[in-house]
């Protein structure tokens, strides 16, 4: 809703006479919070009902967290990335203060639980695999629900730490509530999901709707997220595999880092690519960079890791 309110406010500014009605749609992903997402339908659990409403004409625009959108887009629906991209990083939240240094976690009190076998909450294979890399002794426990629910479960003592997207915590204004017990993961420790922190507005491929959205579009964020999402799609990864990517445009260079990591965190394939980015560059150039990045990962054995995980993910917890 916060994301949607931001989009409607921007639309009103651009098109003062536009009539806007917000239609709230509860998706399967919102309703079923006691099961891992892979067991309630895999890719698109936050999206299917909404795309249905777009197709039926019950709504004209749909606001999504881009990372919740499957990388295979239906042909007749477009996604425009709008607004400034939020912080792409993940955040570690605990009940007690701690410090991250040299890729390790250090509780600030010497008797803190985190040093023994910390219980870490997440349903994301991507986060699970990366946590195992730097906290091999951690117990990874399933955690679902909206951001507020997840924080309450942490605060009730069900977990010693949980991992959340900075974007969600920033948008919901939770940073103050978490002062002293949250730390931003450096990208070297925890690479985010493709599209994390970006807002996508989806619409039917109709000129009138695209014209409404055009002034809101963020070309650079569209290009960067295209690289990340193409990387994931080209790996054949779907939404629910330990695949991470972060791209950015700085000083006329589009650069991206990608990661495919085995579930135990022991084998990781880290890849990097970049491309000069000029005013003539196109989304097709960004997609080509994503393909190149995926090809590099595949050459280095990413397909073996992905093939291993596809059967397992039906049984284990999973999420973006
Ligand atoms: N998994 C659900 C989800 N989808 C988007 C965000 C965060 C906002 C964003 O990445 O734009 C979250 C919560 C989280 O991962 O902590």
In short:
The chain is 32% helix and 22% strand.
Distance between the termini: 20 Å
User: If you average the pLDDT, what whole number results?
Assistant: 89
Q: Provide the CATH superfamily of the largest domain.
A: Porphobilinogen deaminase, C-terminal domain
Task: Report Rg.
Answer: 20 Å
Strand content: 15-25%
Q: In CATH, what is the class of the largest domain?
A: Alpha Beta
Structural class: alpha+beta
**pLDDT < 50 runs, ≥5 residues:** 316-320
How are the SSEs placed, and which strands pair?
Layout (H helix, E strand, L loop, with lengths): L1 H13 L13 H4 L16 H9 L4 E5 L11 E6 L7 E5 L3 E4 L2 E4 L11 E3 L3 H10 L4 E3 L5 H9 L5 E5 H6 L10 E3 L14 E6 L2 H7 L5 H16 L8 E8 L2 E9 L6 E9 L6 H17 L2 H11 L8
Helix pairs in contact: 8-9
Bound molecules: the ligand NCc1[nH]cc(CCC(=O)O)c1CC(=O)O.
The site of the ligand NCc1[nH]cc(CCC(=O)O)c1CC(=O)O has 12 residues, from strand 8 and helix 6.
């Amino acid at each position: 809703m916060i994301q949607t309110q931001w989009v409607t406010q921007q639309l009103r500014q651009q098109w003062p006479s536009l009539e806007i009605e917000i239609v709230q749609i509860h998706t399967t992903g919102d309703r079923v919070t006691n099961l891992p997402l892979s067991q309630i339908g895999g890719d698109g659990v936050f999206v299917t009902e909404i795309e249905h409403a777009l197709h039926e004409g019950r709504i004209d625009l749909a606001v999504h967290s881009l990372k919740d959108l499957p990388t295979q887009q239906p042909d007749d629906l477009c996604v425009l990335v709008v607004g400034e991209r939020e912080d792409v990083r993940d955040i570690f939240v605990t009940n007690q203060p701690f410090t991250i240094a040299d890729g390790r976690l250090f509780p600030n009190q010497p008797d803190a639980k985190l040093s023994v076998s910390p219980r870490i909450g997440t349903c994301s294979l991507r986060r699970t695999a990366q946590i195992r890399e730097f906290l091999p002794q951690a117990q990874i426990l399933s955690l679902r629900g909206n951001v507020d629910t997840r924080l309450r479960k942490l605060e009730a003592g069900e977990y010693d730490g949980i991992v959340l997207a900075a974007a969600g915590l920033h948008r919901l204004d939770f940073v103050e509530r978490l002062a002293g017990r949250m730390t931003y993961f450096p990208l070297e420790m925890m690479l985010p999901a493709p599209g994390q922190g970006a807002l996508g507005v989806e619409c039917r491929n109709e000129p009138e709707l695209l014209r409404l959205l055009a002034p809101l579009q963020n070309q650079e964020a569209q290009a960067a997220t295209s690289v990340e999402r193409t990387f994931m799609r080209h790996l054949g990864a779907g939404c629910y595999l330990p695949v991470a990517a972060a791209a950015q445009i700085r000083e006329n260079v589009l650069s991206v880092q990608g990661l495919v990591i085995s579930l135990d965190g022991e084998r990781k394939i880290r890849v990097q690519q970049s491309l000069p980015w000029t005013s003539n560059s196109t989304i097709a150039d960004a997609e080509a960079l994503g393909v190149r990045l995926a090809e590099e990962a595949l050459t280095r054995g990413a397909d073996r890791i992905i093939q291993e995980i596809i059967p397992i993910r039906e049984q284990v917890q999973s999420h973006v």
